[in-house]
Design goal:
By secondary structure, this protein is α+β, with helices and mostly antiparallel strands. It is built from ten helices and 13 strands. The strands form five sheets. A four-stranded mixed beta sheet has the order 5-9-12-13. A three-stranded antiparallel beta sheet has the order 6-7-8. Helix 6 packs across helix 7. The chain is flat.
Length: about 350
């Protein structure tokens, strides 16, 4: 079995991974960083660790005491002391496992150089919000024997199995067609009625900006006038104190009340001004998105430049069957405006 299938079986059978097992054996409460599920790299490390053969291997790492960083030594520099404890894996089994690992390592060395996937850093699982992992599949068929399909799957599922999340598989060519159709549909809508599209985005991102802006400006004017009156009041209180029209104790009480009210009004003014600036920024974002959609109205393929220009992220849902038809949700989050 491959590492992924081994991980899936261990998680399905609720076998605790090493760190969690340690805490359970010690009767300690697991920390927040203690994972509850097995992951592929854990299996990979275990099947290469000679401690299970009964040997002690040390000096694997060299520490730089100036910056506390460690660097892995070459295997010929390790210190190996055989038969320091009872083995739990026999030598024949160990050798067979290492032979499999070496064969797989040679396959990886002979494989074509790994290239960054088209949607790298842009495609996420809609359920666990973790990036999707790309992998390549051979298509077997009469005319597609040597053709490869690039596909994405949830990374959580890939490293920990179905107990954490499901696959959320999405073929790259299918996703390209979905995104291309979505961009073309938006471009057609803008060409048909740009004012309507702009108004819809205003409503979605800003709300009724014109009336809200008028109300905000009116409220802002009142607050600023109240603040001005409080400043005058504080000046008058200070003069009354100097001329001994009021006692120092009375001045302190009145000034404290006025300052508290002044701080409250200043805070409200700041919030209103920030809201106005944010609304203006969103209006600018809408215009930027409209401009980019119009520039890419005639696009007929999806490449990395187009993705970086228009798309913030793509969220892939799990496929399901509705009324006998397989469906899958794909959320396209555009730069500047989000989901349209």
């Amino acid at each position: 079995m491959g590492y992924g299938k081994i991980v899936a079986v261990l998680n399905q059978d609720e076998i605790p991974p090493p760190r969690l097992y340690y805490y359970l054996r010690q009767g300690k409460e697991p920390t927040d960083k203690c994972g509850k599920l097995w992951q592929i790299h854990t299996i990979s490390n275990i099947v290469r660790d000679e401690v299970y053969l009964g040997h002690t291997v040390s000096l694997k790492f060299k520490r730089n005491y100036r910056n506390s960083k460690s660097k892995r030594r070459n295997p010929d520099e390790w210190l190996k002391i055989p038969d320091t404890h009872t083995a739990i894996v026999d030598a024949d089994t160990w050798d067979k496992v290492q032979e499999v690992n070496e064969q797989l390592a040679k396959q990886v060395e002979n494989a074509r150089p790994r290239q960054a996937s088209l949607f790298s850093g842009k495609i996420f699982c809609a359920d666990c919000n973790v990036p999707m992992t790309p992998y390549s599949q051979k298509r077997e068929g009469k005319n597609t024997k040597h053709e490869r399909r690039n596909t994405y799957a949830c990374k959580t599922y890939t490293v920990s199995g179905r107990q954490s999340c499901s696959r959320h598989s999405m073929n790259e060519d299918v996703l390209k067609r979905i995104i291309l159709n979505n961009i073309q549909n938006h471009a057609a809508a803008v060409a048909l009625n740009e004012e309507r599209m702009t108004a819809d985005l205003h409503e979605k991102l800003v709300g009724d900006f014109s009336s809200d802006k008028a109300d905000a400006q009116k409220q802002l004017g009142k607050l600023k006038q109240t603040l001005h009156n409080l400043d005058l009041k504080l000046e008058q209180l200070y003069e009354d104190k100097i001329t001994e029209a009021i006692t120092a104790e009375t001045f302190a009480k009145l000034a404290e009340t006025a300052e508290a009210e002044r701080a409250d009004i200043s805070g409200k003014i700041k919030i209103l001004e920030q809201g106005t600036q944010e609304a203006k920024a969103k209006l600018g974002d809408i215009q930027n998105w409209i401009r980019l959609i119009k520039q890419n109205a005639e696009v007929n393929d999806v490449d990395r430049n187009l993705i970086d220009t228009l798309i913030e992220r793509v969220e892939i849902g799990e496929s399901r069957v509705e009324d006998g038809v397989k469906v899958q949700d794909v959320g396209i989050v555009y730069r500047f405006v989000g989901v349209v």
